[in-house]
Design brief:
The protein is α/β, with parallel strands linked by helices and about 280 residues long. The protein is about 55% helix and about 10% strand. It is built from ten helices and six strands; from the N terminus they run βααααβββββαααααα. The strands form two sheets. It has a four-stranded mixed beta sheet, covered by helices on one side. The chain has a two-stranded antiparallel ribbon with strand order 3-4. Helix 6 packs across helix 8 and helix 7 packs across helix 10.
């Protein structure tokens, strides 16, 4: 993906090093269960998977603990470039949606992005890195621990900068839903949750459509986005972690559904194409 490496977003709040009260051992399941009702969208099922990797690693030591520590400590030039990249993707998404809202005669309200490590306080509650990237409608902020991208590549097999961009675009999609009063505050049925997640995937695809028109996409970028969408499908995660697929427990949609939603937005390129 082509982007301005000198870009500095005014809407990024970098809280790395501020501490979130979780230490290096991983959060307990008791923390994550209350979050299910409050967040309820992208990241919770992934969070349970990551918890399985890191919680036991924290108890027993070993390579997974070392991997997490290395990811969390990343504050050198590479991490700085990654923070600039997510800031650029955030701003580019928001510029796109501001234009779309203006086309509808509406005003877009910008979201902010919080970069954290280990844990963070949000208006939706306290969360550990195990929750994964999430959007909080109560403070209209996206939250991400950049070490998630290491897992996206190594654990879920979705490398590439556009796979990373897809994650941010999906969460900004939740913000767009929130501004349209289409985002529930938690709870809801599994079917409602899946519809919400698929619509956010569609909105991510609509941004990708616009980014391609502006020559930001490079060869292979669309495939990276599709791979990332498939990697976080409920069925793909269940096969990898449980060895079986249980559709009745899904909250985000299957790999095929998520790819199809992303492509629908990419081909349509508008709010209307995604049902807004």
């Amino acid at each position: 993906m082509r982007w301005d490496r000198s870009h500095q977003s005014p809407d990024v709040d970098d809280r790395r090093g501020a501490g979130g009260g979780f230490g290096g051992g991983g959060a307990g399941l008791g923390l994550l269960l209350p979050l299910l009702g409050r967040f309820g969208w992208k990241g919770i099922l992934i969070g349970l998977v990551i918890l399985g990797i890191f919680h036991f690693a924290g108890d027993c030591g070993g390579p997974a603990t070392e991997q997490r520590g290395a990811a969390s400590r990343g504050s050198g030039a590479g991490a700085d470039e990654l923070s600039r990249f997510v800031g650029y993707v955030l701003d580019d998404n928001q510029a796109h949606w501001a234009r779309e809202f203006e086309r509808e005669g509406k005003q877009y309200k910008r979201a902010r992005l919080v970069i954290f490590e280990d844990g963070v306080d949000s208006s939706c509650g306290t969360a550990s890195s195990a929750v994964g990237p999430f959007y909080c409608p109560l403070d209209q902020q996206v939250y991400i621990d950049l070490s998630f991208y290491r897992l996206l590549q190594s654990r879920f097999g979705a490398p590439g900068d556009f796979a990373q961009a897809y994650v941010i675009a999906h969460e900004v999609g939740h913000h767009v839903q929130n501004l349209h009063d289409k985002l529930g505050r938690g709870g809801g049925s599994g079917r409602e949750s899946i519809a919400t997640e698929l619509q956010a995937d569609c909105l991510a695809g609509a941004w990708a459509h616009d980014a391609e028109k502006r020559k930001l996409l490079e060869a292979g970028d669309l495939d990276e986005g599709m791979t990332a969408a498939a990697a976080v499908g409920d069925d793909a995660i269940q096969r990898q972690t449980e060895g079986q697929v249980r559709p009745e427990t899904w909250t985000h949609g299957s790999s095929e559904q998520r790819k199809r939603a992303f492509r629908k937005g990419y081909e349509g390129g508008t709010l209307e194409a995604c049902g807004l």
